[in-house]
Amino acid sequence: MQRKANARWQGTVKEGSGTLSVQSGTLEETPFSFAARFGDGKGTNPEELIAAAHAGCFTMALSFMLNNNGFTAEAIDTEATLTMDRVNDNWTVTAIHLMTRARIPGIDTAKFGELASNAKVNCPISRLLNATITLDAALQGS
Predict the structure, then answer these.
(1) Each residue's pLDDT tens digit in the chain (142 positions)?
(2) In terms of domains, do 33 and 76 share one?
(3) What are the beta bridge partners of residue 102?
(4) Which CATH number belongs to the domain containing residue 129 in this structure?
(5) What is the pTM of this model?
């Protein structure tokens, strides 16, 4: 399986701007910039997209593991918070914290925790990243 994404940039790093597009068309010439990456400018940035990809990957992995163990989630909501720090004078993604809340009929807390931990370690984006990944997973009432 292969997926494609394209980036285009024009101008200097601080005053310039770019666009991102993906094969599916979900992002089509979506703006990104220095201000969006390191400030509160409009548009997206690579780190935000990594956080979104990780939240989606983990959530699907958890759903898969639940299904393989006879459970079906009514809802799984995951937020990924990415931290980027200067390491040896280079910007580096150092950590991602996953916070997930789920409604899953018939599962106990221990089994849910086991499956959520397994999803955290084994989703493809987790395996891609060279960062500390932490998880706060909890069940919610139906």
Answers:
(1) 899 999 999 999 999 999 999 999 999 999 999 999 988 888 999 999 999 999 999 999 999 999 999 999 999 999 999 999 999 999 999 999 999 999 999 999 999 999 999 999 999 999 999 999 999 999 997 5
(2) no
(3) 76, 139
(4) 3.30.300.20
(5) 0.92
